[in-house]
């Protein structure tokens, strides 16, 4: 691990010294055509070798404590090319988690067509992983903090399990961000992100990230080139800029999420407050051991069912009613029960932004009629 603290890495990690052209801001190379000698290899945007893309890759690798990184056109592109890089027809995947809806849909709608089989298992139950293991198992997929139920599985145990059985371990670190947890440090092979969320943080671009060893990222990059889902250089530049403030934003989100979780926890009109920072959360101890902060996302249920949930959301003035997470603006949404199994219809997800804590707490207090 680098000796520098994360705040420093977010600003300086992967930045060339001396600065390119003397500018402390790395430029956008929007061009797709580069000169090469006769027969030589030239950078090419679809391959992710445009200088602005490569600059971003170096920054991302530094932040996730990885040898290498590749940026893709979305978070789903990152997850799907990561899976393609380790699974072929006839292979089996252990999918340990409840999973982001898009990831779950990718498996349910496309895995069979690709000749992949998978088992969905509990991320915290090591016995379930062992029982799911088959001779053809090639990969283990999980999420650092599950969405929307904010569970934290046995992450170090999962990476050990995968390594011990010679299978690739892949983790979606979107909800945690490398500020909270860096999965390579406990042995995960590939780390994926929807950079659309907290890494960029400003709700103004779609991007994905995969980090890992040079060898593994070369395989991921080869799939990405074949499918043609590299990140556009202009978006790469914006993402690199967004990363500069990642540590500050995520720490303020943590403070805000914690304050709102504390207000809701124990409130007589609210039940089932789920935030790993609360001592009553089933994974609180594990999250405290593994994490630096607990992220921006919490979930809860108001007394009175879906009508009460919708009324509370309508009464809030600061958060936008929108389904994303990790941005500078607070967002609130009712998570529909249809997508993942066993979600109550009145479950509200709140993604804390970077507003003043007191203003958010006052908004919730007023909306709850206190
Ligand atoms: C949003 C999200 C994704 C998908 O990211 P896109 O950039 O929208 O493709 C994947 N995983 C998690 C946990 C997410 O929140």
Write structural notes for this entry:
This is homocysteine desulfhydrase. The protein starts with 5 loop residues before the first helix and ends with a helix. The longest helix is centred in the C-terminal third of the chain and has 19 residues, at 246-264. Helix 3 (75-86) packs across helix 8 (214-227). The protein is an alpha/beta fold and 370 residues long. It has two domains: 6-243, Type I PLP-dependent aspartate aminotransferase-like (Major domain) (Aspartate Aminotransferase, domain 2, 3-Layer(aba) Sandwich), CATH 3.40.640; 246-367, Aspartate Aminotransferase, domain 1. It contains 13 helices and twelve strands. It binds pyridoxal-5'-phosphate. Pyridoxal-5'-phosphate binds next to helix 3 and helix 4.
Q: Can I get a quick summary?
A:
The chain is α/β, with parallel strands linked by helices and about 375 residues long. The chain is about 35% helix and about 15% strand.
What is the helix tally?
13
Structural class: alpha/beta
**How would a textbook summarize the main sheet?**
7 strands, mixed
Q: In percent, how helical is the residue content?
A: 25-40%
Distance between the termini: 47 Å
Protein name: homocysteine desulfhydrase
Family: Belongs to the trans-sulfuration enzymes family.
InterPro entries: Cys/Met-Metab_PyrdxlP-dep_enz (IPR000277), PyrdxlP-dep_Trfase (IPR015424), PyrdxlP-dep_Trfase_major (IPR015421), PyrdxlP-dep_Trfase_small (IPR015422)
Organism: Glycomyces algeriensis
């Amino acid at each position: 691990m680098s000796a520098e603290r994360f705040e420093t890495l977010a600003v300086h990690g992967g930045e060339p010294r001396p600065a390119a052209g003397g500018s402390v801001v790395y430029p956008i190379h929007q061009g797709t055509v580069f000169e090469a000698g006769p027969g030589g290899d030239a950078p090419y945007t679809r391959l992710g070798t445009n200088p602005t893309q490569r600059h971003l890759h170096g920054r991302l690798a530094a932040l996730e404590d990885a040898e290498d990184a590749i940026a893709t056109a979305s978070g789903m592109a990152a997850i799907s090319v990561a899976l393609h890089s380790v699974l072929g027809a006839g292979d089996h995947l252990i999918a340990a988690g409840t999973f982001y809806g898009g990831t779950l849909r990718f498996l349910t709608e496309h895995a069979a067509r690709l000749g992949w089989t998978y088992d969905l298992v509990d991320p915290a139950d090591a016995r379930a992983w062992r029982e799911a293991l088959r001779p053809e198992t090639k990969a283990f997929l999980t999420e650092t903090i599950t969405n929307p139920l904010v569970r934290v599985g046995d992450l170090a145990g999962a990476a050990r399990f995968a390594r011990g059985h010679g299978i690739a371990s892949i983790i979606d670190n979107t909800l945690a961000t490398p500020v909270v947890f860096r999965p390579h440090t406990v042995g995960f092979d590939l780390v994926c992100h929807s950079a659309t969320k907290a890494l960029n943080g400003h709700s103004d671009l779609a991007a994905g990230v995969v980090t890992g060893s040079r060898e593994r990222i070369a395989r991921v990059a080869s799939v990405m080139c074949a499918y043609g889902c590299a990140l556009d250089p202009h978006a790469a530049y914006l993402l690199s800029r967004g990363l500069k403030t990642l540590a500050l934003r995520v720490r303020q989100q943590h403070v805000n999420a914690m304050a709102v979780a504390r207000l809701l926890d124990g409130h007589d009109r609210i039940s089932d407050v789920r935030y790993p920072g609360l001592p009553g959360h089933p994974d609180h101890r594990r999250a405290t051991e593994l994490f630096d902060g607990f992220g921006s996302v919490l979930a809860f249920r108001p007394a009175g069912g879906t009508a009460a949930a919708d009324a509370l959301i309508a009464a809030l003035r600061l958060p936008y009613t929108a389904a994303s997470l990790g941005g500078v603006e607070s967002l609130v949404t009712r998570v529909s029960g249809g997508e993942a199994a066993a979600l109550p219809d009145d479950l509200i997800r709140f993604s804390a932004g970077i507003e003043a804590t007191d203003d958010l707490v006052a908004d919730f207090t007023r909306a709850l009629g206190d």
